[in-house]
């Protein structure tokens, strides 16, 4: 349950990250979407590592 939720968060972050490369109109908007995608991916990865270290 938790792992699938984290995987979904990671995929959403990855999609947002890739979406930032499609936006060429505004530089600020592109940077914000880029940072949001990276932060979602990092959140999922860090939470997964935290849960794995608690289980071991």
UniProtKB/TrEMBL annotation:
TM region(s), chain numbering: 6-24, 31-52
UniProt-recorded name of the protein: NADH-quinone oxidoreductase subunit K
Keywords: Membrane, Transmembrane, Transmembrane helix
Domain of life of the native organism: Bacteria
